[in-house]
Design goal:
single chain, 465 residues, alpha/beta, eleven-stranded mixed sheet, two-stranded antiparallel sheet, 14 helices, disordered N terminus
């Protein structure tokens, strides 16, 4: 039984237990929504970029709590289309634009009974793993307001970890669910590429982006998959539906499966305290789940500048004739990337980028010939200061996010599932342990996360400031 505390505060447990409370008559969707709206108004996290209270109140008043997420207030990442909501993509360039349609994922969530509250902040176009944009300012980590949430699903992580809503949507093209989940003490799952459809009007390239959620519990992720996953013809790369994610949680036999603990994935520069915590967490998980730890070399090739520049192709198309006149409105890093790409990108570079992708796939496949799971850190460090930009240095130390992504991008490039699991803290700041698995074996990762949750439960929300 979750202690709900005072009734005018948002639910402190996970989304599934909130639905249970609705069904038991312990809470009402209307009261829960009003508690969330009041908490958002009073919050100093800057987690939301816009709110839609009247629409939310209408849905809460008519909520069917018999549905999977019936009556649950939901925060939606501002890069995700919702009809009539701002379509800024966290950029000054599109500050006055609105979405003419909702995404397939949002439509499926609405059919499952959610109450969309508002859009959460993100980094501009989802292109940076920071919680800062020129349009919305700085989003702050509930564990320490001076620290970042990471990105790009910045506000979603802050809203869930900060106790404003129980669950929020996210997207992960290079770690944008797992990075903020790791920094904020949440569960962050990036499924096998195509697990949740991205339509309508799916942008195919760069074949790395997957949708999902920022959650307080493993079962919340499973219920999200029950609602949202499954093929949709408007995303030709989406996977066929798999039934029973929540029902089957914990039923897979993990005993004897092989795991390698590689906090750095062979190349990232990881804070020693983080590496030690992840190693200890991996060893404990292996003992609890009956995994067999093996010693195999882990070395995934870097993808280089070429691959990073190919990711700007869709953005350049979207900006159209606004570029380069809009350069001054863009985050400096985004503007510089576009300018640099226009100078150096050509067919030869595109070819090198695809060759690097092939080599990365071969390296990952060879690794999974030897193991079933790879256990690594989610982030190389704890959350860095919130206000700093990329490539910031203090003295001789690199303190910015330029080293972030080294541990998460490999799973995006080759489409493997990966999950960030809270594994403790360093200096009071959360640390995530990432487990990467084989394609289509998402359920095994969720089962491993459930073992950690059962044996070493993590706080559902950050402690009060």
């Amino acid at each position: 039984m979750v202690d709900c505390g005072v009734t005018d505060a948002p639910w402190p447990g996970d989304a599934c237990s909130l639905v249970d409370a609705f069904r038991a008559g312990e809470r009402s969707p209307v009261d829960e929504l009003e508690a969330s709206l009041a908490a958002i108004e009073a919050s100093d996290l800057n987690a939301f970029s816009s709110l839609d209270p009247e629409r939310a109140r209408e849905r809460a008043a008519s909520a069917d709590v018999g549905l999977p997420f019936g009556g649950v207030p939901l925060a939606i990442k501002e890069l995700e289309p919702v009809t009539g909501w701002p379509a800024t993509e966290a950029s000054l360039v599109f500050a006055d634009r609105t979405w003419p349609y909702s995404s397939t994922m949002v439509e499926r969530l609405e059919a499952a009974g959610v109450v969309p509250v508002g859009a959460t902040t993100a980094s501009e176009f989802g292109g940076l793993n920071v919680s800062v944009s020129r349009l919305h300012g700085v989003t702050r980590n509930p564990w320490d307001r001076s620290r970042t949430t990471g990105g790009s699903s910045a506000g979603s992580a802050a809203a869930v970890a900060g106790g404003l809503v129980t669950i929020a949507s996210g997207g992960d093209g290079g770690g944008s669910i797992r990075i903020p989940a790791g920094f904020c003490g949440l569960v962050g799952m990036k499924g096998t590429f195509g697990r949740i459809p991205r339509g309508p009007r799916t942008a195919i390239q760069p074949l790395t982006i997957l949708l999902g959620c920022l959650a307080r519990s493993v079962r919340d992720v499973c219920r999200w998959y029950d609602v949202c996953s499954g093929f949709d013809r408007r995303d030709p790369y989406s996977l066929p539906r798999v039934e029973g994610w929540e029902r089957a949680l914990g039923t897979n036999d993990l005993a004897g499966k092989r795991a390698v603990i590689a906090p750095t994935l062979g190349s990232a520069v990881v804070l020693p305290e983080v590496a030690e915590l992840v190693t200890a967490g991996g060893e404990q998980l292996a003992a609890d789940a009956g995994l067999r730890l093996v010693d195999v070399p882990v070395g995934l090739p870097g993808l280089g500048t070429e691959w990073a520049l190919t990711n700007l192709v869709q953005l350049r198309e979207e900006l159209g004739d606004l570029w380069p006149g809009c350069a001054e409105q863009l985050t400096p890093e985004i503007a510089f990337g576009l300018q640099f790409a226009e100078q150096v990108f050509d067919l030869a570079m595109a070819g090198r980028a695809e060759r690097a992708r092939t080599e990365a796939n071969e390296a990952m496949a060879a690794l999974f010939d030897e193991v079933d799971f790879v256990i690594a850190a989610t982030n190389p460090d704890v959350a860095f200061p919130a206000e700093i930009g990329l490539n910031t240095r203090v003295g001789d130390q690199s303190v910015g996010p330029e080293n972030n992504g080294a541990l998460t991008i490999p799973a995006n490039v080759v489409g493997n599932p990966g999950i960030s699991i809270p594994v403790g803290d360093v200096g009071g700041l959360p640390v995530g342990m990432q487990v990467i698995g084989r394609h289509h074996e998402d359920a095994l990762l969720l089962d491993l996360a459930a073992v950690v949750e059962r044996e070493r439960p993590w706080p559902r929300v950050a402690p009060p400031a």
